[in-house]
Amino acid sequence: MNKLYKYITSPRRSTRDLGMNIFITLLLAVVFTVINPNFVKGYNLVSMGQSLAPYAFMSLGILFPVSMGGIDLSVGAVCIGSAVLAGKFYELGMPLWCVIPVMMLFGLIIGLLNGTIIAKYNIQPFIVTLGTMMFVRGFTAIIAAEPTVLYPANCWYNQLFSNFNGFPMGIVWVLLFSFAVYFIFRKTKYGRYFISIGSNEKATLISGVNVDRYKCIGYAFSGLMSGIAGIFWSSSFATVSVATGNGMELDAVAGVYIGGTSALGGMANVWGSVIGAGMLVLIRSGLNFALARLNISINSTYITYVISGLIVVIAVLIEQMREGGVGSGKRKGKPNETKKAITKIVS
Question: Which of 95, 139, 233, 324 is most exposed by smallest CB count within 10 Å?
Fold first, then answer.
């Protein structure tokens, strides 16, 4: 038990965690294949690739507020809401290519709204983003004035973002954007400031950083990535329902936490978040095939919620143990914490 505790609380375990997540994902794939060989058929691999893209983009977006110690519960509603809104405009005669900037702009506006309210009025991110989640769902349903909107199938839009001759194009876009997000966190001042705000907001403020500004930027990134997720959702599923987004934000948040990013802020595991999102997609798809083969009439989505919920709680508990603050809900203060945070910012 002592060795396990030392491993859990080791501050240099991110690489091992990523390797462990990859190993678990591959192991699950093998198990599902053994249960039902149809799991690795080409059509299902393409389907999983198409399903992964929206969740991966939402997880990458949530990384920004989570790295600052916040949360964004509106990502699922923004993803589907942007697709519904742009789809309605398309049905009214707007050119298809215009749906792309419409979805991105809608996500960006909602993200800026979240960030502005959180930063300027110091309201808890959970409350603000819960409110915008409900607002977006209601607003887009009113605008659509119908339960579903339709997108075209078998055209350049699907081939560019979803399925190009049997290849899931979403995987390519996820990799490209993952590298971009990784670059932001590792090589730019924005990434350093996001991490620093999550590590010690007061120290970051003392060092001269405009914390409110970077909170707005972080939530704007989250909203923008959710709007982009809507592009991949609408290109993969020609029929988009206003009620589809229920629960999507939970999967995206779970992917981030499963990927090794701390719920307390101060870090961002980009590749782990993508793997975490992929693991949930794989579990849901694999359970469908396994339950069908075993003749068990249980909805795989519910089992996935059970599994992901347990994993999230365990991941947060492990992070609390690592920070030495189990039961406190926050990091324990250290005498030189402010000095270290300021040094990180200016270095």
Answer: 95
To the nearest 10 degrees (0 to 180), the angle between helices 211-236 and 42-67 is 170
3-state secondary structure of 48: helix
Residues counted in the chain: 347
Nearest to 66 by CA among 304, 231, 206, 272: 272
**Hey, which bits of the chain come out as E strands?**
148-150, 163-164, 167-168, 239-241
DSSP 169-228: HHHHHHHHHHHHHHHHHHHSHHHHHHHHHHH-HHHHHHTT--HHHHHHHHHHHHHHHHHH
Spatial separation of the C-alpha atoms in residues 80 and 241, rounded to whole Å:
8
Q: List, for residues 24-74, the tens digit of each pLDDT value.
A: 889 999 999 999 999 999 889 888 988 999 999 999 999 999 999 999 999
For the entire predicted model, the pTM comes to 0.88
Residues in Cβ contact with 118 at an 8 Å cutoff, skipping those fewer than 6 apart = 70, 124, 125, 128, 215, 219
Closest CA to 79 of 255, 216, 222, 199: 222
